[in-house]
Each structure stands twice: as structure tokens, then as C-alpha cells.
# Entry
Amino acid sequence: MIPVGVDDRGELAIPADVDTVGWYRYGSAAGSATGSVVLAGHVDSAQQGVGAFRALWSAEPGTMIHLDRNNGGPLTYRVVSRETFGKNAIPLTALFATTGAPRLTLITCGGPFDSESLSYTDNVVVTAVPT
# Structure
């Protein structure tokens, strides 16, 4: 996992390596008392294979997620929802909020693959709460 910000288009920067997850460094940090800890990663790549977030497609409510931190010890979250949004319909304000109850927001690509744009048409968003 590495800290990320936004790219030249103002979109969340996602690490190029499919095995690396990006933590949105301008949001809440893991273990924060409020807000959304946003992690984003790839589901797959034609060149690199299966990505770190492939399992998000099948994450069900109740699934436990363990997050290891370098400082502060491990954290455990319980999945409460998995939603799919069109790329242009993702509720950015809600997902990236630094206020409200603490939660983990995991974002990856989903939906059908568009061979013309070489991209998935949707985003899969998994939300989990601390246990």
C-alpha cells in the first residue's frame, strides 16, 4: 500500500502495479475516529494478471477485512455493503468524506469490460466498518 493523491485529470491516482493498493492520503488515515479511509486498486490487467482487489467483486456483508499498519497495529473491519456505480455516477463526496462514522472504503473497477476504451464501465465500492 502506498499513499496516493490525484492525477493530472483530477481523478484518484491508482498505482500502476496491480499488486499495489493506493491509500488516498488527503482523506482519513486507518484508525481515525471519523471519516472514510479510502483504498483503491486494480481488479486486473491484461499485462499483469489478477490485481489486489479482484476479491472485491465477491465481497459480501459480514466479510472480515484485516488491515495491517506499520505503526499502530492491525485493524479489522466488517463489510456492510458492496455497490456498483457507473464511472460517472460514483458519489465522490460521500465516499471521500473526512467526517461521520469511521469506515473503510475500497474502490476498484467493475461491470463489463469495454474493449474500445480498454476499461471497465463501472466502479465496485465496498464499505466496511471497524469491529
About this structure: Helices lie at 92-95. Residues 2-130 form a domain with the Sortase; Chain: A; fold (CATH 2.40.260.10). The mean pLDDT is 94.
